[in-house]
Specification:
The protein has helices at 10-13, 160-179, 188-201, 206-217, 295-303, 314-328, 403-421, 442-447, 485-489, 512-522, 590-594, 599-609, and strands at residues 51-55, 120-123, 126-132, 136-138, 148-151, 154-157, 226-229, 249-250, 254-259, 262-268, 281-287, 290-293, 308-309, 334-338, 344-348, 356-357, 372-375, 380-384, 429-433, 460-464, 480-482, 501-505, 527-529, 544-549, 559-564, 566-570, 584-585. The chain is α+β, with helices and mostly antiparallel strands.
Length: 611
Amino acid sequence: MTPTQNWGLLILISSFSAGLYGCADDPAGDSASDSASATEGTSSAGSSATLMTTSASASAGATTGGGETDGDTTGDTTGDTTGDTDGDTTGDTDGDTTGDTTGDTTGDTTGDACENPEQTKCEDGLLVACIDDGGLSWGDPTPCEDGFICKETACEEASAAQKAQVSALEVYADHLRDHTGYWQEIDFAGLKAAAAHQIYLGEGSDYTFAKAIYSVYRAVPQGHSALGLGPLDWSQCYDPDGVAPLRGNSWYGVCARASGDTSIITFADEMNPMGLGPGDRVVAIMRDGETWEGPEMFERVSHEPLCDGGVPSESGRADYNALHVFAIIKPGDSIEVEHPDESLEVIDVPERGDLISCSDPFRREERKELFVSHQREDGVVVVILPTLGSHPDHPFPQPLNTLKQYRDWNAEAIDLLNEDLAQYNDIKGLVWDVRGNRGGSAEYGMGIFGSMGEVAGGLGECHARIVASSPPEFAEAVEYPFPYPIFVDEPLPTINFEGKQAIVADGMAVSAADWMIHRATELEIPVFGHGGTGAYGYQTGGSYVSMSLEPVEGEHFGVDSYVSGARCLDSEGDPLEGYAPVSVMLDYDPQDLADGVDTLLEAAVEDVLMP
């Protein structure tokens, strides 16, 4: 571990009013401050050609309007993650163009006989010529010159709009490349080439541009990042006719999580337009004559553009993709549904309705609270913990100027839990339900389970990216230690319970919740369900930056980018990003959901009741 530094307050104070470590349902909201009203995060003022690059401030990128009106906080956090990538690879460098193009040509096989040496055709934007090599046959596909694409039978110059889109794409990709805290090398040149190919194959549409930009974003598995597409007020993200919906949400009155390679309904409004119910599973999506099913279904869903936040872990990507089935399907599609009785039904997708948030799998009212507890008849106390951040019932001090204030806020949060637990007698076990937890203070989450050690940074530390280093390099000095020295000098109180505990989690538990789950795992407290998002950074400090590309009428819409440059390591010096521990990997049981039984919670309760 790097020796404790004299970090001062610069990193923290700039963001304490909004909360640290937050993330997620809405990549444009501000971290842990789920009680804060939404504010304009990126100005759309100035000329349409202006490029703005700034260090992110405390409220970098909160959304404006849209979303639910029932009190749920849409815009809980800036920039966490989803980046649905395939692990540590460079992502989509194959130039995925399914559904993106108009004017792709036929004749996609080489080796077919051609009629004369003057004949040419196009294959996926490449030019193929008829050659005479002792007989007429098609040659190998070759790219057109820069700025041209092959359509129908010949290379054609790209439109001005397409060239402008490619230029904007390159600016965005270079900024992401130079600032991301992801530590492995990524083939950004290949990503840009493949994305530009998508744009040139299209007709300059917003959808094609969004999908191309998104293919670069999703190839970087780094949490606490975000991507907004459209007008810089994020209005497109809330529009049912928009091309890139807001992550963590559904248009069809249902919420879902991953169940193997299917999307299982965990919540269904009685009036949802497809008549779906809890326990129903989407096993296939039919679009434009294609069927997405099995492992391909989530993979195809993950390519559709979103206003998104990065999700480094496999478990997080799976749960988000399962939910996003109901964000990306649209009229003209069909879905195949397997009901709990194993019968199958094909349903035509109707018009999109109102956007609902699905951070909590059951859309429980408790998701709006600081926490809610209850004691079951079997004596187990369940604590639903939707946030580890500032809340109207326990707001951050204003102004928040010192580390002592921050330490005391964490201590008071744990004291509130202890006061609540004191109402119960003969507690047989304690289960923490952090499904959909929005993040907040990592020290709060870890402190619940006891001491954080005797050395500042003893549980982990984060280092800032050296901008534009290639391969990525990071400063030797610590940008953020876990815990800060004050938590060692003045240890937090702990929960007044010495019996068995367990955690119930899912892939939408993010940031500080990831630290909480990580700490619980170290202490051999079991975690049931799915691993969290695997995002261990933060949205503060000099390594967290933002950039906006203004929309240009007739060329491309705007791009809002938030990038974390933090690389976080555990106590052994190993990278944490993407690490999402789970003791008992468990999906929801369809019949349990249909019967109103919470499969994951019951498994955790059974465990804590065991002698």
